[in-house]
Design a protein that fits this description.
The chain is α+β, with helices and mostly antiparallel strands and 207 residues long. 25% of the residues lie in helices and 20% in strands. It has a single domain (43-206), classed as L,D-transpeptidase catalytic domain-like. The protein is built from 5 helices and 8 strands; from the N terminus they run αβββββααββαβα.
């Protein structure tokens, strides 16, 4: 995420009143599901529901836990280009892990994907060379180029959930992203969708 000069919600809260996340009434409670993961998760998969502002963690077809999230400053609609502050929708995978993120910890997503590259090429946003670079990276399971006009550096990271405040990333409470960072390897599938398509995504994940 290309970051501007602003404080994420957790830093704002702590600077203003010194409250911990535990005592912050604006934060949502993490839904607790039995069998909290303690190590690397087998067949880990993630679905992020933009409408409900929730991240669903799966092991195969078993729901393990649900986490509250926040989105980009313009949360409605799919990401189209760099700087639109929208959270992208589609099928991705974790392509990087950054233990030194300015937002505590971050898990980078493979945006733009092939569909984004095709759209960008047909709309004249990217060159054919940029299109090929994105497609080749996705086919190899690597990080796609993050410096094209489609944007990039979309991550799951910490910083807090008081409001939709990112430039397109998915924000969690620090304690939640710390848990996910520990158990999710590079390559973990991530589906980002709105409520009308969530049931279809759940069906695909269970197949």
């Amino acid at each position: 995420m290309k970051e501007g000069r602003f404080f994420p919600p957790e830093k704002v809260r702590h600077a203003k009143c010194g409250q911990s996340e535990r005592n912050d009434q604006t934060a949502l409670e993490t839904d607790q599901v039995p069998d909290k993961p303690d190590g690397p998760l087998r067949e880990a998969r993630i679905i992020i529901d933009k409408t409900e502002r929730k991240l669903f963690l799966y092991s195969g077809d078993e729901l393990i836990k649900t986490y509250p999230v926040r989105l980009g400053l313009d949360p409605v609609g799919d990401k189209e280009k760099a700087g639109d502050r929208r959270t992208p929708e589609g099928s991705f995978y974790i392509c990087t892990k950054n233990p030194k993120s300015r937002f505590f910890l971050s898990l980078g997503l493979s945006y733009p994907n092939k569909e984004d590259a095709e759209r960008g090429l047909s709309n004249g946003l990217i060159t054919r060379e940029q299109y090929r670079a994105i497609v080749q990276a996705i086919e190899a399971g690597r990080k796609p180029p993050w410096n094209t006009p489609l944007g990039g550096a979309i991550c799951i990271h910490g910083g807090g959930i008081a409001w939709d405040w990112t430039h397109g990333c998915i924000a969690l409470q620090n304690k939640d992203v710390q848990e996910l960072y520990r158990i999710l390897p590079v390559g973990t599938p991530v589906t980002v969708c709105r409520k009308p398509t969530l049931s279809a995504s759940l069906s695909r994940i269970s197949q």
